[in-house]
Amino acid sequence: MKMLWCWRCQQEMPMLETDEAALVHKAHWHGMQVVEAEYRRRGRVFNPMQLEGVVARRLLPMLEMYRLLTGFAETNPNAVWHHKVDEYGPPCPQCHKPLRTVEARFCAACGLGQEDAKADGLSLVKRRTELFTS
């Protein structure tokens, strides 16, 4: 889990790493037994959230796994789908917020790279590699 700026939520949110996202998807497809097993494996006591509505209850395993992995009790299933590190680009060298995507042509927060984004279709990372090397 990694805290990153979320463009949709407009705040820093806990983002899932690749292996964590796989666990969330597994819980979504295979149900609460996956969540309960992961809680036991980690030596934690499982106390499920009480959510209203058919959709929320149907997606409860996914939301519970996200809560276990991040410590954040998300109740919006759509938020879980886009809170994945792999969906964002590297941090902008100027403002340090993540680029919206790996293929972003400029930083949406501060505009870095916007001046020459129309010149070619390359992503900012490919067009200005010197900015992203350590």
Description:
The structure is a single chain. The protein has 2 domains: 2-86, no CATH class; 89-134, no CATH class. The chain has 6 helices and 2 strands. The protein has helices at residues 18-30, 32-41, 54-58, 60-70, 77-82, 124-127; strands at residues 2-6, 11-15. A hairpin with a 4-residue loop joins strand 1 (2-6) and strand 2 (11-15). Helix 1 (18-30) crosses helix 2 and helix 1 (18-30) runs antiparallel to helix 4 (60-70). The mean pLDDT is 92.
Short description:
The chain has 134 residues and is mostly helical. It is 37% helix and 7% strand. The chain has helices at residues 18-30, 32-41, 54-58, 60-70, 77-82, 124-127; strands at residues 2-6, 11-15.
CA radius of gyration: 18 Å
The total strand number stands at 2
SS field, number of helical segments = 6
Strand order of the largest sheet: 1-2
Helical residue percent? Answer: 25-40%
Strand proportion, as a percent range, falls in: 5-15%
Low-confidence stretches: none
> In one word, what is the shape?
elongated
- The chain-level structural class is mainly alpha
Largest sheet: 2 strands, antiparallel
- How many separate domains make up the residues? 2
Q: Overall mean pLDDT score?
A: 92
Order of helices and strands: EEHHHHHH
Distance between the termini: 23 Å
